[in-house]
Amino acid sequence: MDAETVSNRQLNKALTEQVKLLDAKIKYAAAAAVAEDVAQKSLEINKEQFVIITKLRDRYKDLSESYPDNTKFLAQLRAQETSLRNVQYSSVAAAAATQGTIKPMGDVSGMLDKYNSLQKESVKIQGQMTLAVVERSKASSQSVNAEIDE
Predict the structure, then answer these.
(1) Angle between helix 8-59 and 108-141 (nearest 10)
(2) What pLDDT is attached to residue 27?
(3) In this structure, which of 27, 29, 31, 131 has its CB flanked by the most CB atoms within 10 Å?
(4) Angle at the Cα of 80 (from 83 to 121), degrees rounded to 5?
(5) Which long-range contacts (CB under 8 A, 24 or more apart) does 142-150 make?
(6) 143: Cβ–Cβ under 8 A, 6 or more apart, which residues?
(7) Residues 128, 38: contact at Cβ < 8 Å?
(8) Total-model pTM
(9) Buried-exposed string 84-120: b where 16+ CB fall within 10 A, e elsewhere
(10) What average pLDDT values come out for the chain (150 residues) when binned by 10 residues?
(11) Cα–chain-centroid distance for residue 66?
(12) How far apart are CA 113 and CA 109, in angstroms?
């Protein structure tokens, strides 16, 4: 712009455009940071679930082979755990456990509860991820140049 011919109105318009562009970049950066945080939380939950399911499948290989789907495997394991708990004080169950026909369930109940808790958290995180991606997209669409140079 030529300093002699530029008017205050032209300067104001140029400044307003730059402020809008900067605002869009800031919004994009904030939305991208939120999306990254949510993605990291989701990854951590998935890792914890993987550790739990791997331990349970290693411990109950026969059941694992019969139920390759995690949901069905966990439901069957929960059913066995509940059934065993209901008869755990009977002498038949005690004898079967000592003979090895019934495996003691130990901390399986706690592991199943933890897995279910993580599953609920994962569903909640997926909702947050959807919102974060939408917000990031909105911020990005405000300006063609909204992405921050790294």
Answers:
(1) 160
(2) 85
(3) 31
(4) 115
(5) 142/20, 142/23, 142/24, 142/27, 142/28, 143/20, 143/21, 143/24, 143/25, 145/21, 145/24, 145/25, 146/21, 146/24, 146/25, 146/27, 146/28, 147/25, 147/28, 148/25, 148/28, 148/29, 148/32
(6) 20, 21, 24, 25
(7) yes
(8) 0.65
(9) beeeeeeeebeeeeeeeebeebeebeebbeebeebee
(10) 72 87 86 90 95 93 92 90 66 55 65 91 91 84 52
(11) 27
(12) 6
Q: Which amino acid, one-letter code, is at 43?
A: L
**How far does Cα 10 stand from its chain's mean position?**
49
The tokens describing 13, both together, are 């318009």
8 A C-beta contact, residue 137 and residue 99? no
Distance of alpha carbon 86 from alpha carbon 80, whole angstroms: 10
- Nearest residue to 146 via CA among 26, 48, 44: 26
Phi, psi of 133, deg, nearest 5: -70, -40
| Token pair for 89 | 């004080």
Q: Which amino acid, residue 149?
A: D
What is the rounded radius of gyration, in angstroms, for the C-alpha atoms of the chain?
28
